[in-house]
C-alpha cells in the first residue's frame, strides 16, 4: 500500500499551521494586553498616590495656617501618668505624631519601601468586622485598616495626633473638643469629616449593636456634637480616667459604608472592614472565615506611606507546623512558646537568617483559668461548685504553677497574683500568689462539703455528686495541651476530676459569648493602665460584657467605680491595689502567668527595636510599622 501526501493533506497541514500562528499571535497579544493593563493599573495607583500626597500637602499647609491663627492650647492626659491632666501648649505643627518612628527609619541608609510582611494568626479567626469581634487577631487587622484620633507613642506612652491634629479639654475634664485633619479620605476615596466621628460614637452606643465591650468604657459620655466639618465636641457626665483614651482609641467608621447596614446585619457580617488606614482589604465586604487575610497598601493614604506593599496573615495552626514554615522562610516572624524559642535559637541553620528577641510586652497581659459560678440550662440558672470561694481557692492551690512555669514555659515569665502586671503601678506588691498546697486545698474542699465519701479517690458533695468539670481551651497550641494535661494531673491528686474540652477558636468565642462552659483557660491582653470593669464588675454579666463567670462582689464594684472616677494618679493606684487584693482573695479566676514575649524575625526585616511598650511596633498599639526590607533583600513583588 502506497502512502501519498495529497492536496487535501497539504491544505489540512496549512490550516493547522495557520491556526497555530493565530493562537500564538493571540497569546502574544493577550500577554501584551495583560502587561499594558498591569502598567495602567500601576500608573493609576501611582497617580492616586501622587494626588493624595499633593492633597495632603495642601491640607497640611491649610492646617498650619489655621494653627498660626488660633494658637490653641491642648490639654491632655498628663504625660507619663495616664489619666491625670495637664496643660500643654503645642507648636503650630506638633513635634511628635504617629509617623515619628517611620520618618526616622526613612533616614537610615538602607531604607526602602516595598516587599510583603508574611505573618500568622496561629489559629482560625471568625470575624474582621469591628466592635462585634472579641478576637485579638481581628484587632491586629483593624488597626492597620482603620485609625483613631490619636495614638500612644511607643516610648513616651504619650498620646500623639493621628486623625485629630489637636484637641482641647476643659478644666473639669468633662468637655473635649477635637480638630480633625484636612485632606483625610477613606480607602474608597470618600472624605472623612466630623459626620463620620459622630456616626462612629452613635453606632457604638446603639444598644442594638453588639458592642457591649466598648460601650462599657463610654458610660460617662453624654453627647457627641459636630461643630463643623472638622470639629467634634464630646461631653461627659463624670470624670473617668479613660474618657480621653477611649475616645481617641476608637477607630473611625465611614458613615457612607457602615451606615447602609442595619445593626442586625452588621452584627452578623464577618468581613466589613473599611477605614482611613495605611492598608485596606481588596474588598471590604466579602471576607469570610477560612480566607487568608491580605492587606494591600492604601494608595489614598493621607499620612506618611507605609513600608510594606502587603501584610499577609496566614492561619497556620500547630507549633511544629509553624516552626517548619518559619524554617522554610515562608513566614517572616514567629511568636514562640519557650520550647520553640529555645529550639529555634539554638539551631544554626535558623539563626543564619533570624534574629531572636525576648522582652516584656506592656500589652501581654496574663493567662488564667476562669471558674463559671452559674450555669444556665433550659432557661434555669444553677450554681456550680465554683460559686463557693473556698472551692475556687482550693483549685488554685492544687495547681503547681511554679512547676508549670519552670518545666513548660522554661522560666520565661512569673506566676500571676492578679490582673495587673508586676511592672504596673496598679500591682499590689503586698499580695503574694497562692502557694501550691494540696493539703490546704483539701481542707478548703472539705469545709465546702467536698470529701472522698466512698474511698474512690474522688471528692463528692454531701449529695454524693463528684467534683467533676470540663476545662475548655483553644485547639492548635501544643504548649496549652501540655499545660492542660499538667492541670488534669494536679486536680486528680486533689480528688477532682477534670475533663479536657478542646475546641476550635470560632467555636470557643461562641461558647464564651453564650457562657457555655464550666471552666475555661485563656489569656487577656493588657494596656499601660488597664480597667478591670468589663471583666469583673457585676454589671458586665449580662449582654455582651466579659464577666462570663457570673462573679459578683459589691465591694469590688464600688472600688472599681471609685477608681475609674479618681483624677489623681497616686490615689487611683491605691484603689487599684485594693481591687488586686479582693480579686486575689476571691479567685474568680486562677491567675496563672505573666509571660514574656518571645519572637523570631527573619533578618531581612530591619529596624526592629525595643520600646517602652515592648517593641517599636506592636499591633495592639495601633501605630505605624517602622520596619522595612532593604531593596536588595526584597523577595515579593506585586
UniProtKB/TrEMBL annotation:
GO MF entry, a single one: peptide transmembrane transporter activity
Q: Which GO terms describe its cellular component?
A: ATP-binding cassette (ABC) transporter complex; outer membrane-bounded periplasmic space
Entry keyword Cell membrane: no
| UniProt-listed CDD domains | PBP2_AppA_like (cd08514)
Protein's name according to its UniProt entry: Peptide-binding protein
The Solute-binding protein family domain sits at: 158-538
Give the matching InterPro entries: Peptide/Ni-bd, SBP_5, SBP_5_CS, SBP_5_dom
Asked whether the keyword Cell division is assigned, the reply is: no
What is stated as this protein's family in its record?
Belongs to the bacterial solute-binding protein 5 family.
**Listed GO biological process terms:** peptide transport
**Which UniProt key words apply to this protein?**
Signal, Transport
Pfam entry (one): SBP_bac_5
> What domain of life is recorded for the organism?
Bacteria
